[in-house]
Design goal:
119 residues; five-stranded mixed sheet; alpha/beta; 4 helices; single chain; Transcription Regulator spoIIAA
């Protein structure tokens, strides 16, 4: 079950975006939720940690992810992704290239959080 919420790590707020195992309809809902949260923040201040493990990839998900990463670009100071392996890694690379974003990819969520708080 996906979702989005702010978590604390090392005294900093991180927006945890959970796309793990989601189908397209749920992905769209999580993105809608994220946009509401992100739009309330000051530009260039949001740290994001996105879990994509087991997410389903198809042309529709690719399109909405590209739109989402473009939308949140002005708000995000730094972002990290966990769970991007196999086809998800390829999709991640395509979305990053399209959006002009640079997100760090990690296997371990704790390492991702540790990196984020140093940004």
């Amino acid at each position: 079950m996906g979702g989005a919420r702010f978590i604390e790590h090392g005294g900093k707020r991180i927006l945890f975006i959970d796309f793990a195992g989601v189908e397209f309809e749920e992905l769209v809902g999580v993105i809608r939720e994220c946009k509401k949260l992100i739009a309330k923040e000051q530009p260039g201040t949001v740290l994001t940690l996105t879990n994509v493990a087991g997410a389903r990839v198809n042309p529709m998900t690719s399109k909405v992810l590209k739109e989402f990463t473009t939308f949140n670009k002005p708000f995000v100071k730094a972002g990290a992704v966990i769970g991007a392996t196999g086809l998800l890694k390829l999709e991640f690379d395509v979305v990053m290239k399209f959006s002009g974003r640079v997100l760090a990819r990690f296997d371990d969520p704790e390492k991702a959080k540790a990196w984020l708080i140093t940004q």
